[in-house]
Amino acid sequence: MVMDMYQETVRVLWNKQIGTSYFHMGLSCYHGYGAAMPGQFVMVRFPDQITPLLRRPFSIHRLITEGDTTTGIELLYKAVGDGTRKLSLCKKGDFLDVLGPLGKGFSIEERFRRIFIAAGGIGVAPMVFLADVLRQKIGDLSGVRLFLGGRSKDDLLCKDVFLSAGISVCITTDDGSAGERCQVTGALEIDVKRIKPDIIYACGPVDMLKCVADIADTHQVGCEISIETAMACGIGACLGCVVENRRSAGKYLHACIEGPVFNTGEIRL
After folding, report:
1. Which of 155, 163, 208, 258 has its CA 20 to 30 A from that of 148?
2. Cα–Cα distance, 196 to 104 (Å, whole number)
């Protein structure tokens, strides 16, 4: 399905620091986001900006609604470079230039009941939106399990949001400062072997996604992943975000159009 996209100047509703380098932002948007799907993203820039030159992509973290009307979007991001550090300084009432909603989101079917979600670090950003839509589509989320991983306890975000939705949560950290001391994919594979899910959704670093794809392939489980990749335009006009097409040798797919969510059988990581 082809969706309309909009470029508009939007107002910052809030921009709160929620960890050492993590921020949660609300934006008042006026067009098109009521039909947005989990996994889609926006491209953000500062009005009349000179530096950084290019827009920055951000997953839609959540929709802001008033009754049945969508009035804005939330972003969850980590301040790691010049662009995101500048974004972290925005205050309520500031304005940003936003292009979206963009890309292809997760496929959600009402027949899905046992669902595994794997999120590594800031890869949790689109998964809260996913949980919101799953609750709307299937209601009972007792069969949904989140595998939330990070380098340390400081990199674990949104756990309470998932728990309050009735989703069970497995925590892992690389340093053992919270949950199990292992990679999130290790805990995921243990549970996949125990009870095979209907589908796996995942977002995180590319090495993590490669491992998730291998687990899904080995155990013959459907799997969709949202890839994290650099994007220059967000609309397919450049080749900055292409990924190799697994089904057609020598061919490539745009992460900003055919993705950023792909079935793991579609692409070669």
Report:
1. 258
2. 26
Rounded CA-CA distance 101/60 in Å is 8
Q: Are the C-beta atoms of residues 249 and 75 closer than 8 Å to each other? A: no
User: Tell me: the pLDDT tens digits for 90-118?
Assistant: 999 999 999 999 999 999 998 999 999 99
Instruction: Name the residue ranges covered by the structural domains of the chain.
Output: 6-102, 115-227, 229-261
For the structural domain made of 6-102, what CATH number should be given? 2.40.30.10
- Cα separation, 211 vs 22, in Å, equals 25
pLDDT digits (tens, 9 = 90+) for 154-170: 999 999 999 999 999 99
| CATH of segment(s) 115-227 | 3.40.50.80
Q: What is the pTM of this model?
A: 0.94
Phi, psi of 217 (to 5 degrees): -65, -45
